[in-house]
Amino acid sequence: HLPERNWYKEVPEGVTPIPLAIVGRPNVGKSTLFNRLISGTRKKKAPVDRRAIVSSQAGTTRDRKDGVAVFGGLTLRLIDTGGLEATSETDKSMLLSSMREQVFRAIAEAEAVLFVIDAREGVTPVDMEI
Fold it and tell me: Closest Cα partner for 28 from 2, 61, 76, 51?
């Protein structure tokens, strides 16, 4: 449980956010986590709230989504990515191949990667492949 002073923070002026890619299989909660982290941060000069779409249907997030959040005293540039499928599945689909390429671009841009798994399923063979 975080102290209340860490819940709502302003994005500090003149601070370059740390790029953090949120990566994992489809429907493990990447976009939900992205939304939670950016929703607790007040943004100056940001008229549009750019939240990720969340759905129980796998494959909802296809393009990367960026947002700035302050969490635990760190200013983060969060990069929400589409779900990574097994290579055998990705190789069969141009769409999945394109999504995979976008995920790896986000990883290349990031200074840190947050790998999300479904706690109910635990680490799966696809998680291990990723």
Answer: 61
> Dihedral through CA 30, CA 34, CA 37, CA 39, nearest 10?
-130
Other C-beta atoms lying within 10 Å of the C-beta of residue 42: 10
Which two three-digit tokens encode residue 99? Answer: 């999504």
The backbone region for 93, taken as left when phi is positive above 0, alpha when psi lies in -120 to 50, beta otherwise, is beta
**pLDDT of amino acid 47:** 41
**Helix/strand/coil percentages in the chain, nearest 5:** 30, 25, 50
Written in H, E and C, the secondary structure of 38-57 is HHCEECCCCCCCCCCCCCCC
Q: Is the dihedral of CA 6, 116, 28, 102 positive or negative?
A: positive
pTM of the predicted model as reported, rounded to 2 decimal places:
0.77
